[in-house]
Amino acid sequence: MKNLTKYLLLAAMLFSAATACRKSHDPILPGDDDEDPADNTELLGFYFVSEGQWGHNNATLDYYNLQTYTMLNNWWAEINPTVRGSLGDVANDIAVTDEFVLVTVNASNLLEISERGGRHVAAVEIPNCRMIACDGGYAYVTSYANDGYVAKVSLTRKQVEKTCATGHEPEGLAIVDGKLYVLNSCSYHTDFTGGGNNEIASISVIDLDTFTEVDRVFLGIINAYSPLTLMPDGKSFFINSSGDYNGVAPCSIIYDTRTSAVVKTFGFGGTYADVYDGKLYIFDTAFSYTTMDWVSSNCIYNPETDTVSSFPVPVSAFASFGAPSGVWINPKDGDIYIADKGNYTSPGSLYRFGKDGALISRIDTGVCPGHLAWDLR
Amino acid sequence: MIGAVISIFLQLGPAGPATPLFAHDTTSAVTDTVKASRIIHIKSAALPVASLDRKTIEALPASSVADAARYFAGVQIKDYGGVGGLKTVNVRSLGAQHTGIYYNGIRMDNAQNGQVDLGRFSLDNLESMTLYQAQKAELLQPASDLASAASVYLKTRAPEKTGLRASLRTGAFGTVNPSGTVSYVKRDIKASVNAGWLYSDGKYRFTFHEPAYDTTATRTNGDIRALHSELYFNWKGLTVNAYGYKSERGLPGPVVRRISDQYSSKDRQWDRSAFIQASWETSFPGNWQLRIGGKFARDYCRYLQDPTQNAAVMKVDNKYRQNELYFYAALAWRPSDWLGAGFSIDGRRNGFSSESETLAAAPVPWAKRLSGLTAAQIAVSPGCGWHIHTSLLSSVFKDKTSAGSAWKSRAKWTPTVIVSYEGLSWLKLRTFYKEIFRAPTFNDLYYSIGGRTNLSPEYSRQLDAGADVSIGKVFKLSADTYLAGIINKIVAIPAASQFRWSVINYGKVRAKGVDVSAAASVNIKEVETSFRATWSYEDSRDRTDKASRWYGGRTAYSPLHSGSLVAAVGYKGLNACVSWLYTGKRYTDAANIPANELDPWYTTDLAMAWKGSIGKRAKGGIGVDINNIFDQDYEVVTRYPMPGRHILIKLTIEY
User: What's the pTM?
Assistant: First the structure.
């Protein structure tokens, strides 16, 4: 009896040793051995999505290690060599929960669910999927199909549980105070002939318990092709409007969920935006082939003082860019990351600038770099 | 018929008078009936020329015009797979828009996108297909014949006697392809009508190979049904051709990661096309020759992406209509053996209109283009076998659109100089320099929102030097080396959003290469054998932006090496032909990284046929084509898999 117990104990020890070893062969994220449950205070790196070129099936999910400052290109593909079709065609958004990393792959019509360490777990079919928001064991994914809807995906059962119809072409979404806010961009219902027959963008307010739309607020803007960037107060969103490329100029607004109203309008577009240190960094720089010059309205907006100041990185820094395609600010040290799509078919770059706007380094990415999620533990 | 088997494999290299093949000059629509006192076609036509004539086309395991074109050196066919997939010709990696396609002597244009889909032409009714680098060195040709960096001339069969011909092709992919021709020949009149129907379900199994797994699936939504007919009429110096085509096809789209087939492409396309063209050639005393002609064409295309069939897509329903009116007059004067001159003037009017029920579209509802081309040519043969041929083309364009702003260009002058030495019977040397451009198409200028109307044409330059070696009728070798470049390449790049594309002149390509073709034929008693080989080396590089990481990368889809081998044997009524085609590794983008590699591919095809008499007057034949014998999995265009082994049977009867 004594011997049996001894052997059982030995077996148990060997077993746990074996599984512990197996665990350490798992992917290549720093801090994997941390026993603490996620308290989201340590920034180990970031996940980075490059969309790929339509029809080339070359979307990529990479990982940038912020402790060693190294980029692991093709990170997800190398961890998952047996997933048929790899990540897929045209990735559109990325979101991170305590357990998972989620990526919408639009032209493959699926939501990819992987472990934080990169290993593929499941893929959920959602046609024409766009952006993701997560809360309480669920992922909410917008889709342009069927005149626009949002799908509620259970992260435990890895399937779509419910859908809720929204307005046209829903893009960005966010959860505030138990409600899901979905931005109906109406981008495809814009009259690009300049005729003025544009559908007005709106926000669908969806109650998370019943998962039904309880309100739709019209925003007075068109072609709201934009995420919902959460402002420092945690209750308002910054939203971009791209205009109709004719008489209606781009603009951007701030929408307050508490008053269900637009509380601020800027006379310029804000294609990319991020929040840092209580301020909103607005980035809108593109090369105009009509004027053959860069057009830029980059700035920093301080919501407390309602003032605008200059963006740390000068426009001259973008002279060598093909097309800026995203801005993200490191929440820990304020470094500014700006992506460059280049020529849209060849791999692009991600540039790291310091808080002061000085260029620090260039990072290789996949084709059409565009989406980033911080790896906070 | 037996003698013809020999000749098919020797139609390489220039069709100059030194070879016995000049009598079968396949380059002019009206050569057969010209009884002029002196043929004005330049005797020195020493340009890189490759030709496939009727017998070769019948012997090769090719079931479409695009398949047959693969046997030319330096040619890449951009093939999206399946019977109905788009197939365009790309010569020396200059791009499909730089290759001119000529149908019975008259240029085929597509003002909307600048590309001609070779899949529209029936191989059954094709007499010959000839590829010219640069242009024909002929004094009597319309100015439009000088307007491309390379030219492919398709000539349809002229009737030889009154009778009837019918064929049926069937086999793989549910193909049913009956075709028939009725001909009438009496004294000076020759007429024929050809009609064909093509159906294919387009289903084929394919496999993608990845390092860790294979994916096998079946191609769907690749079906095609097409009705096609051609008319030919000839009386003395007048030739009239008419052509009609009507089709519906599915577009299967690229194969990408997916969970189910629910959202795979259900896109459909309908095409209707008709044209009538006429040419009249005559000669006058004093060594003058005149050729005039015209063409009227109408095209319709509808492209549909229907969310009720496929919930993942946004509604696209575009209808495009095009019409073309074209006239030309060409005059040539050959006062002596050592001097000749040619002058021609072309006028063309292209109209385009679009109707769309497509969300977020803003294409220009209509656009028109007037083009005026004039060309002057001089040929000098100073003696001792030297020939010099120069031409100067002037092109003017003026557009008009519903949007108001439109493209307009001042006269562009583009020269060509050809020098050849043909003093020896067994050796011909040649060199040429050609500058030409392709004008921006309606898609380039007016399709994108906020499109620019100040696009420059895309210019190409070529410098070529080569030689032809022939040993009697037994062996022939043709080799050319060239330098080519494109500047102001027109590219469309998506701007801030998926709706707004910028179309700009942004791109430079530099290429150098070598094209070699060889043919040999050996007869042993009643058994004839023929061999044909081509090899191309092509180093085409992107030279757009010196500051870019990808500067100097190999141009997308340009293989370093490619080639073909064909061996045929004939005995009485039996014919067998085996061919091997190879295309080397390519990259899908100027970024030559492993992720963008497309594996080299080769296919081996076999054709066997028997032809004989049935009764007293009729002739019949039966043939089998086994394509891709070794069931190779390959892609020409990334994510568009090509069919594996497939068999087609053909029955013919002639009366």
Answer: 0.89
Q: Do B452 and A56 touch (CB under 8 A)?
A: no
| Residue B584 φ/ψ, nearest 5 degrees | -75, 180
Kindly provide the ipTM of the predicted complex, given to two decimals. Answer: 0.88
* A86 contacts in chain B (CB < 8 Å): 210, 257
**B18-41 pLDDT per residue, tens:** 221 112 222 332 333 333 333 333
Q: Do A108 and B549 touch (CB under 8 A)?
A: no
Among A260, A261, A243, CA closest to A252 = A243
Structure confidence by residue, pLDDT tens digits, B609-652: 999 998 888 999 999 999 999 999 999 999 999 999 999 999 99
Is residue A177 exposed (0-12), middle (13-18) or buried (19+ Cβ within 10 Å)?
exposed
CB contact under 8 A, A108 and B257: yes
Out of A82, A123, A146, name the one closest to residue B311 (CB): A146
Question: Mind telling me how many Å the CA of B639 is from chain A's nearest CA?
Answer: 7
- Per-residue pLDDT of A201-232, as tens digits, reads 999 999 999 999 999 999 999 999 999 999 99
**Does the beta-carbon distance from B259 to A271 stay under 8 Å?**
no
Say which of A55, A187, A192 has its CB closest to residue B362.
Answer: A192
Rounded to whole angstroms, the Cα distance separating B443 from B303 reads 15
Query: pLDDT digit string (tens) for B402-440?
Result: 887 889 888 999 999 999 998 898 999 999 999 999 999
SS (H, E, C) B542-575: ECCCCCCCCCCCECCCCCCEEEEEEEEEEECCEE
What is the average per-residue pLDDT within A248-265?
A: 96
Residue type, B260: S
Give the closest of B263, B499, B595 to A109, CB-based: B263
What residues of A are in contact with residue B497 (Cβ under 8 Å)? 187, 223, 225, 242
| Residues of A in Cβ contact (< 8 Å) with B548 | 342-343, 346
Pairs of CB atoms within 8 A across A/B:
131
Tokens 């006192």 belong to B37
Q: What is the pLDDT of residue A40?
A: 65
Please list the helix, strand and coil fractions of chain A in percent, rounded to the nearest 5, in that order: 10, 50, 40
Give residues with Cβ within 8 angstroms of A178, minimum separation 6.
A207, A208, A209
Using one digit for the tens of pLDDT, what is the confidence trace for A4-23?
Answer: 556 555 545 554 544 443 33
Chain B residue numbers touching A61 (CB-CB < 8 A):
none
CB contact under 8 A, A242 and B497: yes
A193 CB burial (10 A radius; 0-12, 13-18, 19+): middle
Helix (H, G, I), strand (E, B) or coil at B174: helix
Cβ contact, residue pair A88, B213, below 8 Å:
no
Helices (H) and strands (E) in chain A, counts: 2, 30
Annotate A168-207 with DSSP letters as a single string.
SSEEEEEEETTEEEEEE--GGGS-TTTT---PEEEEEEEE
Distance from CA of A357 to the nearest CA of B (A): 22
What pLDDT, on a 0 to 100 scale, did the predictor assign at position B26?
A: 29
Q: What is the pLDDT of residues A285-320, one digit of tens each?
A: 988 877 788 999 999 999 999 999 999 999 999 988
SS (H, E, C) B35-58: CCCCCCCCCCCCCCEEEEEHHHHH
In angstroms, rounded to a whole number, what is the distance separating the alpha carbons of residues B384 and B421?
8
Closest CA to A169 of B360, B264, B501: B360
Question: Which of B207, B208, B213, B259 would you mutate first to test chain A, the one with the most A CBs within 10 A?
Answer: B259
| Nearest C-alpha in B relative to A54 | B254
Q: Encode pLDDT of A324-372 as tens digits.
A: 999 999 999 999 999 999 888 999 999 999 999 999 999 999 999 999 9
